[in-house]
Write a structure and sequence with these properties.
Elements: E1 3-9, E2 14-15, E3 24-28, H1 37-53, H2 60-73, E4 80-82, H3 84-94, E5 97-100, E6 103-108, E7 111-117, H4 122-125, E8 133-137, E9 140-141, H5 147-154, E10 161-168, E11 173-180, E12 182-185, E13 189-194, E14 198-203, H6 210-224, E15 230-234, H7 243-251, E16 259-264, E17 272-275, H8 283-295, H9 299-302, E18 305-309, H10 316-326, E19 331-334, E20 342-348, E21 363-372, E22 388-389, H11 400-403, H12 424-441, H13 461-471
Parallel strand pairs: 14-15, 15-18, 18-19, 19-22
Antiparallel strand pairs: 1-3, 1-20, 2-6, 4-21, 5-12, 6-7, 7-8, 8-9, 8-10, 10-11, 13-14, 16-17, 16-21, 20-21
Helix pairs in contact: 6-8, 7-10
């Protein structure tokens, strides 16, 4: 049986250069299902009609490629087909470095929305902010582009320039900014000691170097203070990445193997239970975890932990938060997460079973399974519900709902499978109220408008509340956030 190589992917957003790598797996290409002959004949007739009758000659290969892309993108928001150029960009992203601007983006109302600029990148230095809407890339309106096309236009050669037209609703203005492209090396882990005896460790995404960098950072903090009393794991705005990296990081918090996540799909090999045992993640990652455990005297096995999440925490970061919550290993604090509970595999379509890192012709990133927390809960289109809802700032977080879309917002999103999806009507009502608050906010002088605090700073209200919890002090719960309740579907009526 022919073998193809695949990488497991659980990312949510789109980067102008995507996230990083995971272990390479082999999956068997199953026997071909019965082909719907009538529909294939119809496709052939359409193809021939376009080729013979269109107003001008068409590229046959482009027609086929566009047809494939349409077939794949119609499945769900996270499945995609990579042609040769897109594949090159994908493989560049696997290394954890790429040429671009350094922003994670999504789509909103036909525009490109900045989910978050990556710290230290050209976009970050240019002052782009979460929630900014990009309406033009150079002279091209983004309304005429797909998200992938927009990514392509923002990427390019190092030291070349691109001009973006930005709509910043929070300030009620539109402006242009010219940014110089550069090689983006994503630093996915940072951390420091806070209040002397507590560690703050932030993971911005799960990529190739995340496990190694996490181990090094924790070891560094331990050397600075071997008597740490608690750790705040900050996953706010973390869009996910690779499954094995998430499982490896999870392993650091348990003294024996526990269930990390389970997956269920229709293809052989896509339904499995992954544990925090080294066999569930790459050998090198296991070595990093082992070295860290020895250097820190198994510190993380017993250290109290609070995990910070928000609407931008998705996929792999939700797996980590969900496992720590289900095993009662940590308390989750912040806001309800994005709700991406599906797993994708990037499969090389080159002949001969070529590994993804050497794939050169075409590849398919396909949703192959749903994943479930250790308790068997699907968070697809729902998210992780925190133990403590805490506002972004002491005065509340009036615009949180506008900052990130949720998985449930995508019209073509995969169903939950457990009838537990977010009630989008409630979300719409919440957003409308937030828009009215924003309209009032932009009428204020600029120095009086609401500004999100810098994560990890002394003004980081959620971090302060996490430290309060670790110290046994009162936590000031949210004034504006609430659980997005499960949608009561008509499934119950079908039992009558």
């Amino acid at each position: 049986m022919k073998q193809v190589k695949a990488v497991t992917w659980v990312g949510a957003g789109v980067l102008t250069g995507v996230l990083a790598t995971v272990s390479v797996q082999s999956i068997a290409r199953g026997s071909s299902a019965d082909v719907p002959l009538a529909e294939m004949q119809r496709f052939a007739r359409v193809f021939e009609s376009i080729k013979s009758s269109y107003v001008e000659p068409v590229d046959e290969k482009k027609l086929i490629t566009d047809a494939i892309k349409g077939m794949v993108t119609g499945l769900d928001p996270h499945s995609s087909y990579f042609d040769k150029k897109e594949l090159k960009e994908f493989n560049e992203s696997v290394s954890g470095s790429f040429v671009g601007l350094g922003i994670e983006i999504t789509q909103e109302d036909g525009l490109v929305k900045v989910v978050a600029p990556i710290e230290g990148t050209p976009a970050f230095r240019a002052g782009l902010k979460s929630g900014d809407l990009i309406s033009k890339i150079d002279d091209t309106s983004v309304r005429t582009l797909t998200l992938n096309q927009a990514v392509k236009r923002m990427r390019g050669e190092p030291h070349t320039k691109v001009t973006l037209q930005i709509m910043r609703k929070s300030e009620g203005r539109t402006f242009s900014v010219t940014i110089t492209r550069d090689v983006i090396k994503v630093i996915s882990v940072k951390g420091k000691l806070v209040d002397g005896d507590y560690a703050w460790v932030r993971i911005t995404n799960f990529q190739e170097r995340t496990v190694e960098d996490f181990a090094k950072k924790v070891t560094e903090l331990y050397k600075a203070n071997p008597n740490m009393k608690g750790l705040v794991l900050d996953l706010r705005g973390d869009p996910g990445g690779y499954l094995h990296a998430a499982v490896a990081v999870l392993s650091a918090f348990f003294d024996k193997p526990v269930t990390a996540v389970s997956t269920k799909g229709q293809m052989s090999g896509t339904s499995e239970v992954m544990t925090t045992a080294p066999s569930s993640y790459p050998r090198a990652d296991g070595q990093y975890m082992s070295d860290m455990a020895k250097a820190t005297k198994d510190l993380l096995h017993k250290l109290p932990v609070v995990v910070l999440v928000n609407e931008g925490s998705a996929s792999a970061s939700e797996i980590v938060a969900g496992a720590l919550q289900d095993h009662h290993r940590a308390k989750i604090m912040g806001n309800q997460t994005f709700g991406k509970g599906s797993v994708q595999q990037a499969v090389c379509l080159d002949e001969g079973g070529v590994p993804m890192q050497y794939c050169s012709d075409a590849a398919l990133k396909l949703t192959i399974s749903r994943y479930y927390t250790p308790s068997g809960t699907s968070i697809q289109a729902r998210g992780i519900v925190p133990d403590y809802f805490v506002d972004e700032s002491q005065g509340g977080d009036p615009f949180a709902i506008l900052r990130y879309p949720s998985e449930a917002d995508y019209l073509s999103h995969l169903s939950n499978g457990q009838s537990q999806e977010i009630d989008t009507k409630a979300l719409d009502a919440e957003r409308e109220a937030a828009r009215k608050r924003m309209e009032a906010e932009v009428c204020k002088p600029e120095d009086q408008r609401y500004k999100s605090p810098e994560l990890g700073s002394d003004k980081d209200w959620q971090l302060k509340q996490a430290l309060n919890l670790l110290k046994g002090q009162p936590v000031e719960k949210s004034k504006t956030l609430f659980e997005r309740k499960e949608e009561k579907k008509a499934d119950a009526d079908s039992d009558e």
